[in-house]
Amino acid sequence: MPRDDEMLDNWWDEAYSGPISFMRFKYSQDLEKADIAILGVPYDMGTTNRPGARFGPRAMREQSTLTGEFEYGLWPWDYHIAEYHTVIDYGDICDFAGYPERMVKETEEAVDKILATNTACFAMGGDHFVSLPLLRSHVRKHGPLALIHFDAHTDTWVDENYTHGTMFYHAIKEGLIDLEHSIQVGIRTPNPETHGIEIIYADELDGMKASEVSERIKNRVMDKKAYLTFDIDFLDPAYAPGTGTPVSGGPTVMMGRKILKGIAGLNIVGGDLVEIAPAYDPIGNVTAVAGATLGGDILYLLSEALRK
Ligand SMILES: [Mn+2]
Hints:
Structural class: alpha/beta
Bound molecules: manganese (II) ion
Largest sheet: 8 strands, parallel
CATH topology: Arginase, Chain A
CATH class: Alpha Beta
Order of helices and strands: HEHEHEHEHEEHHEHEH
Number of domains: 1
Helix content: 25-40%
């Protein structure tokens, strides 16, 4: 797709004004024109502790008016994605009140439709359970995927229940994940079973440079097709208190951003950012500011992969 001149030419409202799509990308479901679609999945019935991630997509959209209002793009990326791609905010999946299983069905249907037109998808949760239907759709399109997973939790608990702590166990059982090329980063909770996934625990991470972490990820994933999933509780609660299951001892926002920038060029075919529950932010939407920024970085990674 050529550059989105309409996006680049029509400058917009101040950060505090106007409609609040993600990073000011236009609300649209015109998949023929789009290279990347942003999808909200405001579902939080998979939480095991504090609910509230249903407000994540709206909070990310609102705070992204801080990161997305500059025509030069998101620093330190040195271009605007619209110079290379047409990006649309596809809206939300939300017809599931009282029927959680509907979220799974509707998310898979929407993402199948998005991917069928060779449009990449970046999803905003919602609790982390939403990654299961997202992964299923991506694997239908691409085959089993390497998982690049930022989180305080592995979410691979061997448990037949379907929650935001078990969905990657189910994904493994369903054969969705290319385990030999998958990696989890930032883990700082008990983990009785790695399932063969490489793990960088938070204590080791604390002694590493961001560039070293990026190299470990690149060496693990290699040239395989990958799905990137980012739980905002990867960050220390100092930077992301507004989340369902915060765990102390995590990295900074800048560490997360530098790691992401350092893996640009990997064949990342889809991604999500989940678990922002803005009601637990003490003030200033601090978690959603971090999430909107990191979500922007993930969009850039999708853009970089598409251009390769
Ligand atoms: Mn987590």
